[in-house]
Amino acid sequence: MMIGVGVTLLAVALLSVAFREQLARLLSTRPRLLAAASKTIEAAAGVILLAVSVHENVFT
Fold first, then answer.
1. Which domain of life is it from (predicted)?
2. Residues 6+ apart with CB under 8 A from 28
3. Where are the domains of the chain?
4. How confident is the prediction for the chain on average, in pLDDT?
5. Contact criterion met (CB below 8 Å) for 38 and 45
6. Which of 50, 48, 26 is nearest to 37 (CA)?
């Protein structure tokens, strides 16, 4: 069981390093794309929060 935990932690560590490298490369090469994506995610989160708020206030 401890070997499984160790392998899982190793895999997570390796993937996080690889993801960090890819993210750094993406940030340096396509800043406008990331700005648009982050604004889209923020807008979607706002719409979801608004929908949850309306649902909670109307149906309670």
1. Bacteria
2. none
3. 2-58
4. 92
5. no
6. 26
